[in-house]
Design goal:
Length: 194
């Protein structure tokens, strides 16, 4: 296996382990077994299991950012932006991306050395949310950076609870409410322009 293929296999193995077994069971043996690699290759390529798990979180973020950006770029108003958020929320749960994030956030709570690494990886999402909110009627509610912090916190909370409760229905109900509010804000915005 080539170096790039080995790294990719290890990252995929780490993602699968976090999704299916959780951070507590993300051992070198477990990940290497899923990747079809020798455990020593984890340390050769990443230096530690934690660095590999962070690489898995980076991969999830990279995959999701591309998808999120495409949906945001297609959104012409706040209602469509809410629909995009709901779509990616449902996809994240279904594909297990939420589980990877939840496991790494939980691990960071217990591991002070991991905390700044995970926090650093969440920071760009606040910038992404702020950019998505600029120019929408929601931006009138406050500075986009502050609103983005709230949006990311709410989104993460919804993901955490959906995984914890194994029930996305309460989140779906909130997205319905947000859709109704977005419709009203979009209408208000159109009337002010007329």
């Amino acid at each position: 296996m080539a170096t790039a293929e080995t790294r990719d296999a290890l990252v995929a193995g780490a993602m699968a382990t976090l999704r299916e077994k959780g951070h507590a069971h993300a051992s070198a043996r477990e990940i290497a077994g899923r990747a079809g690699c020798n455990q020593a290759l984890i340390f050769y390529h990443f230096g530690s299991v934690e660095r590999l798990l962070l690489a898995a979180l980076d991969r999830v973020a990279e995959l999701r950012r591309e998808r999120y950006q495409a949906l945001v770029d297609e959104s012409r108003n706040l209602k469509e932006l809410v629909a995009a958020a709901r779509t990616v929320f449902e996809e994240d749960l279904e594909l297990g991306h939420t589980a990877v994030l939840v496991e790494m956030i939980a691990a960071a709570q217990a591991n002070a050395a991991l905390r700044p690494e995970v926090a650093e990886r969440l920071r760009p999402w606040r910038g992404f949310a702020a950019d998505a909110l600029r120019g929408t009627p929601a931006a009138r509610l406050g500075p986009p950076e502050e609103l983005a912090h709230g949006v990311v916190a709410m989104y993460l909370g919804l993901e955490l609870l959906a995984v914890l409760d194994d029930d996305p229905a309460p989140a779906a109900a909130l997205f319905e409410r947000a859709d109704s509010l977005a419709t009203l804000l979009d209408l208000f915005s159109l009337r002010r322009r007329s």
